[in-house]
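Hi R.,

As promised, here are both runs. First protein below:
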Amino acid sequence: MVPYHRLSGGGNDFLALVEPAEGPDESAVRAWCTRGLSLGADGLFVLSREGNAVRMDYRNADGRPADLCLNGTRCAVRLAVELGWAEEDVTVLTGAGPVRGRLADRDRVALELPPPSEPPRPRTLVLPEGTFDGWSVAVGVPHWVLEWPASLAEAPVAALGPALRRHPDHGEAGANVDFVRFLPPQRLEIRSFERGVEAETLACGTGVLAAAAVALARGLLELPIVAATAGGFTLEVAGAVEAGAPTRWTLAGDARLVAHGEILLGAHAVPDPPRWS
């Protein structure tokens, strides 16, 4: 039996292990995160104390590590506070570097983040379904942002997401894909297809930052930006901008501890998908 916590951040849900005697391997994470057959989650992180900070080792639902998950990092801040490891603010050590987090209010957590190391770059992707003009931007992990001018209810996230996410132009690692509608002066709507989950998720914190970076570079929006996500929660990007690029910014939104319990042996019993005759 493995003690765990379940958290939700803006629509992303996570399993969290607190200083386990032994961290889970890739197959265990993949099994536990499988929806319908086990607990189900967008990812899992192990949280441990390290001096005055906490370390977050994050894995996507496919069991593979990812350098950064911002909604997961906001949940790590919430959990550290709930565990009594911090009062209001804490530094989270991630694969992409340290991130400072704090309680914004009773229900929300805010992160202080460095700006992207490079400005968004236009990139056209060609598929059998057509040619798509978007923007590549790295915010700890790679994203490709596609402006979708019509209602996002009609965006073909499930149909186009897999091919766009694995397009060869992104390189072997691929990229997260964000379908975004910009609503000047300070609002955007977003749906994200996340690598590692290999499906649309109800929110993506790094995707919101990527979309905000594109909007600022193109002069479409101004800070603070409110981002509406598929889960119904909003995330807010605030900070300072010079010449269309953020010099510092914060990401704030919902982060909740929703359950805790024990992972039993039955959670491991996840078979491979059937090969239909």
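And here is the second one, sequence first, then its structure tokens:
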Amino acid sequence: MQFRIPKIEGLAHAKQLKTLLLRKNLIKKIENLEENTQLEEIELYDNRIRHITNIDHLTNLVHLDLSFNRLKEMQNLETLVNLKKLYLSSNRIRKMEGLNTLINLEVLDVGDNKIRKIENIECLTTLKEFHAAKNKITVLEGLSTCVNLYLIAVQVNFIYKIEGLETLT
């Protein structure tokens, strides 16, 4: 028998918790983590989360994986300034946004969404990997300031034009 939890709870006493891995559950909402300010890694991969909420106090996060959920927007990420890895693949996201304060981000995965345009990543100068495969992108652009990129994965899109990659060595 496989047990899948519906809610994040019972962690208030774990104030020094660094890693929380709750993959493949039935969680609909990020909640009850107010006491867990030391968290550095959260994986809520393959749940039922619809909104990124209740994480603005988790400023020590360096790894956040919300892939395979039901997200439609990239929101409430602004305070996560120490984030290095952000995984949002296989959701329902239509627009890249809310990334302008994530200046330490090294890996961004927005693959398998409904994104039409690469945008709002000018400040991600430390970005090393950009994954945006299986979207609806038509022009490969907007990456000129991401001078540390060594991997751009944009397969299975509708790309007909490539622009602004001259600065990427």
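A quick note on the second one: The chain has a mean pLDDT of 96. Let me know what you think.

Best,
J.
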